[in-house]
Write a structure and sequence with these properties.
Chain lengths: 84, 396
């Protein structure tokens, strides 16, 4: 990762997904910034930080699966459990 | 409440109220300090709750400044916080406990509330331009490049290697290994004209004016010499140059920062470096906090380790290692060496469970406390750059 300030502070162009969501990086969705001005104001996010969070989340979910998802339960079994 | 505290509380109240984790174990259980002390006043949640109390006039910074010593700045809590890990990129709002701790420390110093160890450390750093890493032996500016004696490295040039205080004066074999490897690959670089401490430790301990002054000196020195690219071997410097300097200089910050461990992995991939001397060690790798948790850099060090013949590598995945730390960061060893020792003992204990003889790190600042802890368990602590140099057959 070569760090250059101008590149890190220049996110890819916004693509609108819905009225309330945008995307800048592939498969990474963000709340429409216009909705984030009152209760929780947005922070400055260099590109590396956005990607770090996205990749860390994927790593963490994979880790969770490796550690805790040792069997697959069918929908039918879940419904049976509810019936019981 | 004094005005600076009021302004501080206004600035951080949003973050504090968004920390809803009281009682949650996410941040607490990955915190290296919490793991060995179980002191609730030193938890990430407490660090945020204090801001709320400050805003309500229930306490002043002097009441809690000493609590904020108990943080290594590893970043585990803020990454593991659901506000970061699950929604941070979505809202463009994440938990920033490391910044908060730095800010409280800065507020304390600005109010004349000092921690004695940090005050002395930064006074000596200010006098000598480098951190006093030699246990009482004074540091001298004219010796900052002594580690490179006999290597025939030029001064200046478009690309320079920045060597942190610990490596330049104490762990000198690490920068020597890096320099020899880069020379072997034919990668051109020089040394800085008048290198001062990066200023990062001063910023971490709350001495922000000093940190900015040191940063300005280094940037001016780079510009005067026509430097365009800075190679960094120390993760702490990497954080300073990619997080602190951008805050200080904004759009005017036009220097490219390159992490050496990433560069070396690239040179191996390109075939410009081929480790060939077997290194018969059974190792595990310590993810330095400022690389893995704070920057997401964890693949390249493992790539390098796996390229070294002879090494038996027992890897522990990076997510498990979010709760590991050497205890060497954030000024903790300066103010509370006994707490650093406990954290590094805990970390080395995890390595011992794997039956390894060597713990490999890629952070000079982690290696002193980890080495101390390693002695009791007969585990060597070795720097990744040095291990690679050995396998490339280049002398230290």
């Amino acid at each position: 990762m070569k760090y250059r300030y101008q590149e890190e502070m220049s996110p890819p162009p916004v693509q609108r997904v819905t009225d309330v969501a945008i995307t800048r990086f592939e498969h990474v969705f963000e709340v429409e910034p216009g909705l984030m001005t009152e209760h929780v104001t947005q922070q400055t996010f260099p590109n590396w930080d956005t990607l770090r969070l996205v990749r860390s989340r994927a790593d963490h979910l994979a880790w969770m699966h490796r550690h805790f998802a040792d069997k697959v339960i069918s929908g039918e079994e879940l419904l049976d459990d509810l019936d019981e | 409440m004094p005005d600076p505290e009021k302004r501080f509380a206004e600035e951080w109240r949003n973050a504090a109220y968004n920390c809803f984790s009281s009682g949650h174990k996410f941040c607490r259980e990955v915190c290296p300090v919490m793991q060995v002390t179980r002191n609730e006043s030193w938890s990430p949640t407490a660090f945020h709750a204090n801001v709320v109390a400050m805003e309500k006039g229930e306490l002043e910074v002097a009441d809690v400044a000493a609590d904020y010593v108990n943080c290594t700045g590893c970043g585990a809590c803020e990454l593991r916080c659901p506000n970061s890990l699950f929604t941070g990129d979505f809202y463009r709002f994440r938990t920033r406990t490391v910044d908060l701790v730095k800010a409280v420390r800065g507020l304390a110093v600005s109010q004349g509330v000092h921690q004695p160890g940090w005050q002395r450390w930064n006074l000596l750093t200010d006098e000598r331009r480098h951190e006093p890493v030699l246990n009482g032996t004074p540091i001298e500016q004219e010796r900052v490049r002594d580690w490179a004696d006999g290597l025939d490295l030029p001064i200046g040039g478009e690309t320079i290697l920045f060597v942190d205080c610990e490596a330049a004066f104490y762990r000198t074999s690490v920068p020597r290994a890096v320099a020899r490897i880069l020379n072997l690959a034919g990668y051109k670089f020089g040394l800085m004209n008048e290198q001062w401490c990066c200023g990062g430790p001063a910023a971490e301990m709350g001495y922000e004016e000093q940190a900015r002054r040191f940063a300005q000196h280094n940037l001016d020195d780079w510009r005067a010499a026509g430097v365009r690219r800075v190679l960094v071997l120390d993760p702490h410097d990497y954080i300073t140059f990619t997080e602190d300097y951008p805050k200080y200089f904004g759009d005017a910050y036009d220097i490219e920062i390159v992490l050496v461990v990433e560069l070396l992995a690239e040179l191996i991939r390109e075939g410009r470096l081929t480790p060939h001397v077997p290194v018969e060690r059974t190792v595990t790798y310590h993810d330095p906090c400022r690389l893995s948790k704070r920057k997401g850099v964890w693949r390249e060090p493992r790539e390098i380790l796996r390229a070294i013949p002879g090494v038996t590598f027992h890897d522990v995945d990076r997510v498990t290692q979010w709760s590991y730390c050497s205890g060497g960061g954030g000024g903790l060893p300066v103010e509370k060496p006994e707490l650093t020792a406990k954290i590094s003992e805990h970390r080395v204990g995890k390595a011992a469970e794997l039956g390894v003889d060597t713990l490999v790190s890629a952070c000079p600042w982690s290696e002193r406390p980890l080495s101390e802890a390693g002695k009791a368990r007969s585990i060597d602590v070795v720097d990744l750059h040095e291990l690679l140099a050995e396998s490339l057959g280049v002398a230290p």
